[in-house]
Amino acid sequence: MIFGKKRKVVTKLENDGLKAEEKELFCDLPPRTYKGLGKYVEKFLNWARANSLWILGFGTGCGAIELRPLMTARYDMFRYGIAPRPTPRQSSVFIIGGYASIKTIKRIVRSYEQMQSPKFVIALGSCTINGGMYWDSYNTVNRIDYYIPVDIYIAGCMPRPEAIIAGFEALKKRIIAGKAEGANKYAENFSWYKANQKKIIKDWNMPDYNW
Amino acid sequence: MNSVTLILIGNAILSLFLITIWGLTLNGMVMKIVARVHGRFGPPVWQPFLDIIKNNAKRTMIAHGTMFFLGPVFRIASGIGTYLFIPAIFGSTVFSNFSFSGDVFLVMYFIFFGQLGMALGAGESGHPYSPIGVSRGLAQMTAFEVPFSLAVISLAVQYNTLSITEIVAAQQGSILNWTIFTNPLAAIAALIALLGMNMHNPFSIVIAPQEIPIGPPTEYHSAYLGMLQTNRAIFNIAKLVLYMNLFFGGATNFITLILKTFLIYIFTSVAVGVAFPRFRTEQSIRFFLKYPALIGLLAIIIVSIK
């Protein structure tokens, strides 16, 4: 990190040294890539996925405030097949609602890994793209896609609900075109993502595999 | 297996398929209607189908143990079981399902069964919101079973039978033969119990959005959730068909079934649901054990005096 302070080196993960029956509580395998089910089936499934986007809102910054009006009568995201979902297990779109501090990037990684593939990520606001107004802050992450793969960035400080809906439409096009394979990208470059995450998270006290 | 059994099974599969399609469409229509009440446009009517396709098409799945895996299986078994023992259309061979002379009791058991299976499955998921939802669900179910059982006993005394087909047969002829006119007290008690069964507001304490995120199925995902959603449609329509048979004269064709179940659902659950906020757990349980239970008791007394 910036101040050259010696970081605590974690050698023992939570999976280590557990009894055999408790080991089942953690996953021992790294993620793997998944192939589609064939051209036409996958096209149909992608269309279904694009029209049923369940979002997990990660309200880090001011972006969460812009998400609320989407659910109300004025912007009504339900008509586009978008619905909020309270748990990462069931949702397919992860929305990072603004800047991510080093403390929250840990939670972001855990939530992202608990989501079931195929999963998509939308990052809101300039803070997630290059740090925005926090670019030289000591505890804020500048680029989200060093840590988890991002499908769509929505620029702005903060983007209006209309911009977010436009972002969802762009995500839909990407899913239908079969390009939104973030989960596979994460699995392919797993060691790179983990190295980046460990570089920035000082107190790494969670298992490497969180699902 | 002889040909009669095969035809029976084929008919049951066909009737289950049609009723699943109608149940999912009904859920989509209700989502749309609720949205219009809120002043929104709401999701398209086919949204439940898309959600189920998407959930079943998820590529990864996690198991938390055997019981976790069996939870949705029990749930969907209860939904299908409830439907398959109700004669859906009076006088139709395809829709008579596996009804027999004591089916009303078996159906009552099946309504209970799914929640018990789900309680075991959700308990193993280890998420703290699951047991909260489960304990609320079981408590509320015990409470609304009281007026419902009393109403069914009242019907059994009135018609001197435990067969749904015979109860429907006794209501044919005129609209005034319907149980809701011949035994209004039992109908009122049972319709209030239906509010609890359908878990719309004010009795939405199990799923309780924004309170305990979504209760028992918090950890369920992918195909597990797809199964639970399919079951939600089948179970919902099965209960509506049961009520249609018991209190609203049954149906003699599929169009009547569609119309009657839609109207029962809209006027008993959805209209109440959009107009009232949520009860607390203890309020909901006390509500069922007070007036609806008394009305159910009165219904039995009046019918037995006659």
What can you tell me about this protein's structure?
Chain A is of the alpha/beta class. Chain A is built from eight helices and seven strands; from the N terminus they run ααβαβββαβαββααα. Chain A has helices at 20-23, 39-50, 63-71, 102-114, 126-130, 161-176, 182-188, 190-200; strands at residues 53-58, 82-84, 93-96, 100-101, 120-124, 140-141, 152-154. In chain A, the strands form two sheets. A five-stranded parallel sheet of chain A has the order 2-1-3-5-7. In chain A, strands 4-6 form a two-stranded antiparallel sheet. Chain B has 306 residues and is mostly helical. Chain B contains twelve helices and no strands. Chains A and B meet through helix 2 of A and helix 1 and helix 2 of B.
* Strand order across the largest sheet of chain A: 2-1-3-5-7
Which CATH-level-2 architecture of the domain at 54-200 in chain A? 3-Layer(aba) Sandwich
Count of extended strands of chain A: 7
How many beta-strand elements of chain B?
0
Give the domain tally of chain B. 1
Q: Which sequence of SSEs, written as H and E, runs from N to C of chain A?
A: HHEHEEEHEHEEHHH
Q: Structural class, from secondary structure content of chain A?
A: alpha/beta
| Overall geometry of chain B | globular
Instruction: Report the span from N to C terminus of chain A.
Output: 28 Å
Global morphology of chain A:
globular
Tally of contiguous helical segments of chain A: 8
The fraction of residues assigned to DSSP E strands of chain A is 5-15%
* Global mean pLDDT of chain A: 83
Radius of gyration of chain B (CA) equals: 19 Å
Give the topology, please.
The complex is a heterodimer of chains A (211) and B (306).
Chain A: H1 20-23, H2 39-50, E1 53-58, H3 63-71, E2 82-84, E3 93-96, E4 100-101, H4 102-114, E5 120-124, H5 126-130, E6 140-141, E7 152-154, H6 161-176, H7 182-188, H8 190-200
Chain B: H1 3-38, H2 47-56, H3 66-84, H4 103-124, H5 129-159, H6 164-170, H7 179-182, H8 184-198, H9 222-247, H10 254-275, H11 281-289, H12 291-305
Helix pairs in contact in B: 1-9, 1-10, 2-9, 3-4, 3-9, 4-5, 5-8, 5-11, 5-12, 8-9, 8-12, 9-10
